[in-house]
Predict the structure of B30.2/SPRY domain-containing protein.
Amino acid sequence: MTVPTQYNVIGGLPGLGLDIMLELLSEFRLISNAVQFLGINKKTFQLKNHALFFKIIETLNYPVSVINNDPPEIVFSDIDGVMKKISKQNDRFVTISLTQVLENGIWTMEVEFNNSNDWAAIGIVRDTYEIPPNIYPNRNPHRDHMVLYGMHSFGNGKVFYKGNGTSGNIAFKDNQKIKAEFDSEKGTLIFSVDGVQQPVYVTGIDEKVRFIVWLN
């Protein structure tokens, strides 16, 4: 008699087969929750040896939190447990830094702006730099610690570092999906707009950084 091993207790994981357990793992959205799931017992921990494991892990997310350097101005709210909404109250410069330090792998941040009046940018900042409130990032001393890629009114798509802007990328607009991808092993920062990688990117980054978003 043929004994199924994928979907019953016999020869499988506790109560469920391997495929079902992997499907459950893929439903998690946060890495912290997936880690708890894997740690239930020795058999669930075996999932890490499956060929699909790392593909599933790549789809998970770290919890998002920000450094709010201007609490009266910045409103940070949750949308669905993973996606966050950042709003500003008044007509001030706002620089929002994520708390997550980008190291040991590839990190991505995807942003969509609304009602920005073409005054916004995304990028990275040195982890050691504390950003003051209400600053324009292309002025001293802030420009020496940040890389930013912005909309039409912020350099018309240029990528800025130390006050120098490099042309070649499109100036993104409201309601487009802007992605920054940082590879800590290669030391590169790449930008994409609506899934299209932009030609101007940054290399030679050899220190800890964090993602930032700037709004006017």
User: Anything to note?
Assistant: Residues 1-61 form one domain. Residues 1-17, 28-34, 37-41 have pLDDT under 50 and may be disordered. The two ends are 70 Å apart (CA to CA). The chain has two domains: 1-61, 66-215.
